[in-house]
Amino acid sequence: MKQIDIIDSLPFAVMGHDKARRIFLFNKEAEKITGYKREEVLGRDCHEVFKGGFCGEKCAFRDGVIVPRFEIIHYPLEFVDKSGKKHMLDVRVKPIFDGQEELSGVIATFDDVEAEIEFEKGISKLEEFCGIVGKDEKMLRVYQQIKSVAKVSFPVLIYGESGTGKELIAEAIHKSSPRKDGPFVPVNCSAIPDTLIESELFGYEKGAFTGALKEKKGRFELAHGGTIFLDEIGDISPLMQVKLLRVVQTGMVERLGSTRPIRIDARIISATNKDLEKEMKEGRFRDDLFYRISVIPIRLPALRERKGDIPLLVNRFLEDMSNSFAIKVSSVSKNAMNALMQYRWPGNVRELQNVIQYAVVQAQAGGRRHIELPDFPEKILGYKTLTTIKYNDPPTRPSLDEINEALKRTGGNKVKAAKMLGISRATLYRWLQRKL
Predict the structure, then answer these.
(1) pLDDT tens digits for 6-47?
(2) What residue ranges of the chain are covered by domains with CATH 1.10.8.60?
């Protein structure tokens, strides 16, 4: 990879000039913020290009001024771009010294502060980002990370329990990146047997093994120009770790049955539900591969860590089912939602989705347009927690429909019906007497 490609992949603007103020470095983000193309500014005096001034009184190369030795200058700057639009920039200037310790130029990095502020204001009001549902503070931080890492092509490692939506995050990064028009190729490493994973990832030539009647491209080749997502990377064998390391290091793959390397350009995003640092210390995961794939780590919160998002997720699942299957169940009773809020969700968002799908089927069978407590599977109904959840607390009294449904499903057994409703038998009797 060329040096300019690396600099162009940075998520902030970079500009460099020599002691004559001639610009020799100007990356893509600098083009975006200033409105000037690289070819318009290279070799020119920065004071000439930026009429409104870029450094102003902070300039280390003002005519006739002796420049003192300095480390880094950090300052805000109101800057006018090529179109006349004003930007508030956060600027950092680092000196370049020659072999005689004389100042020979500077490297300046800068960000558009107002753009970042507007993004943060907007994201704080979101309930959904790139198809990902959630407005918990932990998820808002993830959204900000997605925006930042999408600008660069460095490897990303997503940590999260099963069912937290790691593939959704990977796809959001891809769709927010300059590679969005390229392919997004997901690979579930834990679902492919060791005997097949090499041919799946790297492809094979005709005749490479029995049954290889024609050549086949591997997943890395298919991801050329886009992103490859290696889900559950912690499950690959030590031998495959070695082969994968070579691909990450060189950007080259070799198909089975061939010695001809093929150059690929694919961003690598990996994910795991394991503690890879622990796996590495215990010798089950290579440290050199770990450091290569985890340049940018992102941690996804478990659903139990963002329970305030449960109502949003439930509504989304109901909307999706209504649109896809013409299902008429559109809401959840207060008691039913309270049960969802108390459960710990070891299977995270995926488990919640499955529970809602199950409950919708039960509600439809009962001829109802809303989900009630008895519609849930036993694991939800039987779950007890010692903590107090501040959602519809104390629990709302079950409706007559809920009580009747519980009695119907338990064959009239009031003890089982009370358990299903999450109340004592005495409470059930008392409520029945009031309703009859």
Answers:
(1) 777 777 889 988 888 899 999 988 898 888 999 999 999 888
(2) 304-435
Q: What is the pLDDT of residue 410?
A: 76
**Does the N-terminal peptide bond of residue 394 adopt cis geometry, omega within 30 degrees of 0?**
yes
Residues in the chain: 436
Cβ atoms of 321 and 369 closer than 8 Å: no
Work out the mean pLDDT of the chain and round it to a whole number.
Answer: 83
Place of tokens 């409105």: 35
DSSP H or E run through 184: strand 184-188
Task: Give dist(CA 175, CA 367) in Å, integer.
Answer: 41
Domain with CATH 3.40.50.300 in the chain: 126-301
Indicate if the alpha-carbon torsion angle 217, 222, 224, 230 is positive or negative.
negative
Segment 420-432, tens digit of pLDDT: 676 767 777 777 7
Fold entry, domain 304-435 = Helicase, Ruva Protein; domain 3 (1.10.8)
SS3 344: coil
Q: Is 15 exposed, middle or buried (0-12, 13-18, 19+ CB in 10 A)?
A: buried
- Quick one: 187 exposed, middle or buried, by C-beta within 10 A (0-12, 13-18, 19+)? buried
Tokens 């390229």 sit on residue: 182
Residue from 289, 360, 256, 296 nearest 144 by CA: 296
CATH topology of domain 126-301: Rossmann fold (3.40.50)
DSSP string for residues in 222-269? HTTTSEEEEETGGGS-HHHHHHHHHHHHHSEE--BT----EE---EEE
In whole angstroms, what is the distance from residue 379 CA to residue 384 CA? 10
CATH superfamily of 3-113: PAS domain (3.30.450.20)
Distance CA 95, CA 136 (A): 42
pTM, entire model:
0.66
The predicted pLDDT at position 69 comes to: 56
Residue 114 near residue 87 (C-beta atoms within 8 A): yes
Q: Are 369 and 328 in contact (CB under 8 A)?
A: yes
Q: What is the spatial distance between Cα 42 and Cα 16, in angstroms, rounded to a whole number?
A: 10
* DSSP-derived 3-state class of residue 298: strand
Residue with tokens 């041919």: 199
**Residue 55 has what pLDDT?**
59
Q: Where in the chain is CATH 3.30.450.20?
A: 3-113
DSSP string, 50-72: -TT-SSGGG-TT-TT-PPPP-S-
